[in-house]
Amino acid sequence: MQEQRGAEAFSFFSLWLTKAIAGLVLFFALVQAEFALALPAAGALFISFAADLWSRRAARGLSFSLAPDRDRVFPGENIELSIELRNMKFLPVWLTLELPLPRNLEAEEQLSEPGVLRGGLRLLSREKSRRVLRLRAKTRGVSRMGPARVSAGDLLGLSSRARSFAVTHEIIVFPRRLRMKTLNVPLQEYFGAHAARGPVEDPAWYAGTRDYTGTRPAKSIHWKASARLGTLQEKLCEPTLQRKLLFILDTRGWEEEAGEPENPAGNFERMIETLGTLAGALMETGASFGLVTNAGLENSFRRVLPAGRGPQHLGSLLEILARISGPCAAGFDDELRAEARRYAGFVYCGRSPGERALGVCREIAGHAGGRKKIFCVFDGEGARAAAFWEGFPACRSEDLCEAPQ
Predict the structure, then answer these.
(1) Which of 249, 187, 241 shows the shortest CA–CA distance to 374?
(2) What are phi and psi of 28, to 5 degrees?
(3) With contact defined as beta carbons under 8 Å apart, do 317 and 358 qualify?
(4) Most buried by CB count within 10 Å: which residue of 46, 84, 87, 376?
């Protein structure tokens, strides 16, 4: 949490005009010896300065914390947001909290204002208050809370000072998981059962280390790990028969129709969900996979995910998909050509068949050594139901996955 100085909340007694008028009335009342008028003027002046001093001291001794119970969710899942306010001073205070909520998160309870959590409470000396807010994830994206605005003042509410707390927590909402249909023949090879693990290891695919057994050549010893652990360690590498598949998300074409009434943004989201579902199915087979995309990502997040496998690697791929802010008209950089040499198969996801998609696929085919190693998935509206397109196995996204019931 980063605290930022905020504005003051004024009341009648906190205005400098009120203090000036009360001071003038008190001065002339004392000069004229009008004690009946001087007493209320002095009382108003005392209350004004006391309330102002109270709010200053109360705001300085205020602590605010916010913590979600999880920061990676799928649409439809719940998040428990723990909000804690602590009065670290001896002086009791009256607090008012205002916390804007992200658009893709909705509160289960009824709020006084949609999208904003508001509430007031009283904290005694060195007292803390904790509240749990249940949120439900609606759509894919990166959710950022706040900034939270907390106003602290005296118990009568005569004067208060506001402080803004910047919330650094991010909640990643992954793309929705779809239900896969019965796979057709070209794609079945990618997501079907794998061949047995081969006895020959690929030295380019480092997987970890273990204690050196002495049954392997000395070139397999990992000298840096051995020096760090104090015992000889040997390298573990993936076998050469392990399938390595690269997902290519080409967003060119979607941005051209973003302003039309039949906005294809829904189809763009459907393609992202399809890619995430295919990656999940591939992860269950134990294969290695990576991702390259030219989409615009929030905070300049990386657009290339190196090959890997397992649930944690799938989470990294889904996080990249969740951070996509929209389609981009830019092409691929040199990273695509560099990554293409490391994979045995490719899944190209694009808007529609055309010259741009054909250029990318032909370039990859030159490095992969064949067109049958590239499977093309196109938008349902921009592609025809055909098993092959320009020699490449192809299908529509709606033929692969369907929305869960």
Answers:
(1) 187
(2) -70, -30
(3) no
(4) 376
Residue 216, SS3 per DSSP: coil
Q: For 304-316, give the DSSP string.
A: EEEEE-SHHHHHH
d(CA 355, CA 365): 15
Q: Which CATH superfamily is domain 62-173 in?
A: Immunoglobulins (2.60.40.10)
Helix axes 16-31, 35-60, angle to 10 degrees: 150
Instruction: Find tokens 């002495």 and name the residue.
Output: 214
Tell me what percent of the chain is helix, strand and coil, each rounded to the nearest 5. Answer: 30, 35, 35
Those residues whose C-beta lies under 8 Å from the C-beta of residue 181, and which sit 6 or more positions away, are: 399, 400, 401, 402
Query: Residues of 287-303 as b/e, b for ≥16 C-beta within 10 angstroms?
Result: bbbbbbbbbbbeeeeeb
C-beta of residue 184 within 8 angstroms of C-beta of residue 393: no
Going by pLDDT thresholds of 50, 70 and 90, the confidence category of residue 199 is: low
pLDDT tens per residue, range 141-186? 888 887 888 877 776 666 777 777 778 788 899 999 998 876 654 5
Displacement of CA 149 from its chain's centroid (Å): 22
CA angle 248, 251, 256 (to 5 degrees): 160
pLDDT winner (highest mean) among 112-116, 317-321, 390-394: 317-321
DSSP class of 270? H
Q: Is the pTM of this model over 0.70?
A: yes
Assess contact for 262 and 382: CB atoms under 8 A: no
Instruction: Tell me the domain boundaries of the chain.
Output: 11-60, 62-173, 179-194+243-402, 202-239
- Residue range 179-194+243-402, CATH number: 3.40.50
Q: Which one, of 305, 396, 289, lies nearest residue 345 by Cα?
A: 289
